[in-house]
Amino acid sequence: MGPGLYSDIGKKARDLLYKDYQTDQKFTLTTYTLNGIAISASGTKKNELIFGELQSQLKNKNISFDVKATSDSKLLTTVTVDELATPGLRSIFNFIVPDQQLGKVELQYLHDYVGVTAAVGLTANPIVNLSGVVGTNVYSVGVDVSFDTATGNFIKCNGGLSVINADLIASLTVNDKGDSINASYYHLVSPLSSTAVGAELTHNFSTNENSLTFGTQHAMDPLTIVKARLNNYGKASALIQHEWRPKSFFTISGEIDSKAIEKGAKVKLDPVSMDPKGIIVIMTSARTGDRNRRSQFMVNSDGSHGNSLKFGLEETADDDLDEYPQRPGKKRRLTADQVEFLEKNFEVENKLEPERKLQLAKDLGLKPRQVAIWFQNRRARWKAKQLEKGYESLKSSYDSLKLDHDNLLKENEKLQAEVVHLSSKLLQEEKDSSSWESFQLRICPDKLQPGIDAQVMLCKQEDFSSANSAVLESESPRHVDDGGYSNQSQVVGCCGFLRPERHSCSNEFQVEDQALWFWP
């Protein structure tokens, strides 16, 4: 057993302190065919972004093919050849369609006293990464450097050493070109109960910031294990994991921030099921005290519980994929000149293509991932402003329409009142007219029966003092009064008396001077 690779320095302590504490929301379904082909479908939500992937893996003897299609129209292909030409030599060939510039070729060589890794990007001016470790399974020392052939500068330079004992592993690494130092410690207290303790201390010289994390684990029985950790920021985490069937785990974890107790604790429920014919992994998490509720999903293809598939990260030739997303680290802030330069480029084009990302990273001396994250955050702020402008415009239109609507309602109410007033007036006039016609019909029924003779009202002047007054016979066609006579031509219709003026009759005699009777 040799010293391993550079990435193995301090790995035991990192696994104890950060493994199984996941934050990404993932779902993965993996199945295996009878001929050994593995097919995986996965979905991930990272912040407000959602990623989807479909992956297929085929292995034939010492050659394996891994093809992955992502939701952003990328096809990632990895070809791995083990035991190439000599034992311990492995070659890895990666390329991405349509971004061929992000592809790389990597060689790994493991020996009893040395472990070497070399990777070069498939571009005209590639970034070359070299790492090597020398030593034994007890002592080892190594370096990890990245060189940009376009600028002729080292963009990464790390070094580390490790001391391994039967139950003790200590490591020390210097990162970021000597700007930060990291020391870790892992001690296996009891192999029977898998009880272990560990700690990690990180110091940044430029910001003078320190990060200290303690952790421990203990196996309550062969199938149940508990873990806990605490850092100097006041965050405490704990989890319990039970293997309820072979390669199937049920995990409950929680985290609380002692500096923000009022926000509540994060609680996670993680049932993990692995089967030779298929893998279904579901993780859910909820945060009490606020409205954030999330569902998290994860899977490991090797049967162990952890994070073997990574999502939502930019695939670049020199990006270091962080295996422990909750590991505290230095926040690399951009300078004012870098931000101004990026702002000008964002105004020209707010979409970041892979070639442009690499060029900006080279011009500013940053990692492509830093440029991608800056553009992502800047686009989020730009979209938020666009939404605010759209909201203000819609709100102004809504207010204008609402004002017009209110005015129309008032006009409608006014018109309705006028209609009611005119309707009442018309009904009153119709009522008065009907009353007048009814009165006329009561007085002059001959209007309803024009063919029937109406009663005739006669006016005759009497001499009340004369004794010679005579009464006409009913059959006589005429009557005589004081030697005179009157015939039917003197009869006036009954309705004619309504038109003459008051105190008059049809013969224009005064009322007190005439006698009035009806002719039968």
UniProtKB/TrEMBL annotation:
Residues 325-385 form the Homeobox domain. Its main location: membrane. The keyword 4Fe-4S does not apply. It comes from the Eukaryota. One of its GO terms (molecular function) is voltage-gated monoatomic anion channel activity. Pfam families: HALZ, Homeodomain, Porin_3. SMART domains: HOX. GO terms for cellular component: mitochondrial outer membrane; nucleus; pore complex. GO terms for biological process: positive regulation of DNA-templated transcription. Residues 384-432 form a coiled coil. This is Homeobox domain-containing protein. It comes from Musa balbisiana (Banana).
